[in-house]
Amino acid sequence: xxxxxxxxxxxxxxxxxxxxxxxxxxxxxxxxxxxxxxxxxxxxxxxxxxxxxxxxxxxxxxxxxxxxxxxxxxxxxxxxxxxxxxxxxxxxxxxxxxxxxxxxxxxxxxxxxxxxxxxxxxxxxxxxxxxxxxxxxxxxxxxxxxxxxxxxxxxxxxxxxxxxxxxxxxxxxxxxxxxxxxxxxxxxxxxxxxxxxxxxxxxxxxxxxxxxxxxxxxxxxxxxxxxxxxxxxxxxxxxxxxxxxxxxxxxxxxxxxxxxxxxxxxxxxxxxxxxxxxxxxxxxxxxxxxxxxxxxxxxxxxxxxxxxxxxxxxxxxxxxxxxxxxxxxxxxxxxxxxxxxxxxxxxxxxxxxxxxxxxxxxxxxxxxxxxxxxxxxxxxxxxxxxxxxxxxxxxxxxxxxxxxxxxxxxxxxxxxxxxxxxxxxxxxxxxxxxxxxxxxxxxxxxxxxxxxxxxxxxxxxxxx
Amino acid sequence: xxxxxxxxxxxxxxxxxxxxxxxxxxxxxxxxxxxxxxxxxxxxxxxxxxxxxxxxxxxxxxxxxxxxxxxxxxxxxxxxxxxxxxxxxxxxxxxxxxxxxxxxxxxxxxxxxxxxxxxxxxxxxxxxxxxxxxxxxxxxxxxxxxxxxxxxxxxxxxxxxxxxxxxxxxxxxxxxxxxxxxxxxxxxxxxxxxxxxxxxxxxxxxxxxxxxxxxxxxxxxxxxxxxxxxxxxxxxxxxxxxxxxxxxxxxxxxxxxxxxxxxxxxxxxxxxxxxxxxxxxxxxxxxxxxxxxxxxxxxxxxxxxxxxxxxxxxxxxxxxxxxxxxxxxxxxxxxxxxxxxxxxxxxxxxxxxxxxxxxxxxxxxxxxxxxxxxxxxxxxxxxxxxxxxxxxxxxxxxxxxxxxxxxxxxxxxxxxxxxxxxxxxxxxxxxxxxxxxxxxxxxxxxxxxxxxxxxxxxxxxxxxxxxx
Lengths: 464, 468
What we know:
Chain A is an alpha+beta fold. In chain A, 21% of the residues lie in helices and 41% in strands. In chain A, strands 1, 2, 3, 4, 5, 6 and 7 form a seven-stranded mixed β-sheet that branches. In chain A, strand 15 and strand 16 (386-398) form a beta hairpin. In chain A, helix 2 runs parallel beside helix 3 (75-89) and helix 4 packs across helix 5 (208-221). Chain A is globular. Chain B has two domains: 6-229, PmbA/TldD fold, CATH 3.30.2290; 230-468, no CATH class. Helices cover 21% and strands 36% of the residues of chain B. Chain B has helices at residues 6-17, 80-94, 121-125, 127-139, 210-229, 244-247, 251-258, 261-265, 323-328, 371-378; strands spanning 25-40, 43-64, 67-75, 149-166, 171-187, 197-205, 236-242, 283-286, 307-312, 315-316, 337-338, 355-356, 361-363, 381-387, 398-410, 413-418, 422-426, 440-443, 448-450, 453-455, 458-466. A six-stranded antiparallel β-sheet of chain B has the order 3-2-1-4-5-6. In chain B, strands 10-9-8-13-20-19 form a six-stranded mixed β-sheet. In chain B, strands 7-14-15-17-21 form a five-stranded mixed β-barrel. In chain B, strand 15 (398-410) and strand 16 form a beta hairpin. In chain B, helix 4 (127-139) packs across helix 5 (210-229). The radius of gyration of chain B is 24 Å and the shape is globular. Mean pLDDT of chain B is 92; it is low at 1-5. Strand 3 (64-70) of chain A pairs parallel with strand 2 of chain B, so a sheet runs across the interface.
């Protein structure tokens, strides 16, 4: 962080230079670095993550927000960004206030870990990746495994003309194993992974048992029958339940979509949207969460926002502008993918709170249907309220028992119908958080955690 | 034509520092200016730019035992210290790496005289003004109309200069423009009383064409209205028509890996000469296609780009290769090294090491005629206008997603709109097994360039649809 703290005085001076032409200005400076390991049968690749750095100035101008920035942090470059911003603001930007209330937070924070990343040598990390590979390929029929282990450290300094100054360093680590089975030209795989903010402790979820399990399932998938089609009872595993919370509900709860009249949830704020078993939360302060941050990119502290409180749509996620329009406080969810990207209202760690129904009880309750496992993707539809969740595999349930493995499937349907049809939420011992990346549209990818326990409902399912 | 002198200068400075280094190395430099306009409704919400990015990726390839050690590092710290730190990091990373190639030779010169169209000149010269003119044309059809209306949008333009230098003495640079349009139209009026409908467009191209965008936006507005009155699809295995806008989300990713020497090296190669697609199907990978997103005079390692066959009359040809995977599998590079992928589309590429990727997949026009004629041939089925997202799986080639908008086909014509349900399958399977490529019975004659694919509309018999 020291490189950023050395910029404090300069950034403060540049903000003072901009201030006469605007009612509000801010700057976010960032340095980040990391490392990634890829290992499989053919090759081992070790790449230091790109040293992405830079700064972006934002100010309220005559036509709305105006931003100028770049990838350099030397004084000349920063002076240049500020000068260009002044040119673009012209002389009409100081007449009106920007929407909402500016944050005035002052604070510093950094990721804490019982086993910090930098206490693991590169050799240690490589050994770990190779042991994961060995666990997978020990399973008969598994020809290869793609192993990845990534870590990244990112520091951000935020200052504004309203007096906010926040400085944070967030360390993230995640690993995954993709076990590959090949037979007569057909390729199948299954995967497991683990990750979060912190250090080596975040990799503890990748165990020999877990890797061997997905490796065996990869082999089984080669012989799996086609997935059943049509509306049916579905049991989402924690990865799919977390994606439901994020893609299907969370995106609709991003209040910038409400401001644009682009959220099917907007008219439902304060109403019942699901059964009392369902509570959905976004929590940027979740300990060890992959999407955890200390402060957002408008200078607000991150925190826990209960979106659905026992079936009641209680709150949206708000930046300063949406907060003002909705008459609610900002929730600390304004995030930039990096210093080169614009800010939006974004999720952090979004999850369904665990319930009480056991997995066995839910399988018995569903009678006939499919269990959807190993989520690979989800897509939002904020206005239409539709959902798409894809999984790598599943299991068929007949007569209240699991009877066989199924290949990749897509789930679709109306989010509200799915919510209202929820018949059970799994217990805390099955709750898991998953590390993923979220786009706003198809761009601006940033780390977002998703989580949940098992979730029993109804939806349309088909091969995908 | 230069975005800034720094891209070339950076690569040269890194190259200069490395003179006399061990083994082959190359430096990929980028200098970028980015401009963005974001809309909230029809109101400008944010203007961004210039956002300037200068960075480089450095790679070194050192012999080691039976293979090579590849070190790579990237940085946008252009100071002497920053460059030295990146080189040290790459060397350190290489000490732990291994790859089964031998005697890798980098190109000693870059092709000259190839005039590949990669730039929109008006965008390059006047980016902010070009965006404003484009957005005016985009919004014009909605002026004074209460419904449908734009709900949000953005135009993001990237002007980049790419530089490559290597230890064999090659040095060259070329400019490129890309433009991302995201635009959502909301329809809520009328007597239906149903929730609002939306049509969402998210696409990347190399040019902005204000002369065409107004008509396109008007057509999208009609689709937003259709989305309101659409009903879910019915389950079944039915003939399906896929326009290039949908195929572009499926084919480049599902074919890119399996038609690569990277898949060959990993035991997932395709049987060359075997019938994997319909006999009327021919696929090429064209790295020189005018205004293709990845078109360039040379690939990201300096090998000349080319147009090559992947599938001829349904039979698989040799896979794509870059220098390293080509070497490891006994092939020459086909000019297929790329630092981005058809799926992941970062607007700056220097942080990524090269891998084997297709440039623009070209599906050769067939004999099924215009879209109207193709519909007549299909008779009954479903036209998929837009998927939530196909999220194709490059390894298994499975694809599929929710139908955001489609149309029933009745009596050879488009009928009522469809929304909801899923469609999916596998793009590529072994000889004699069902797949998207094997089922492409009808191939239209009117190709369109959509991101990483140039293709006409195709008719598939059949594809699996799951409805409620």
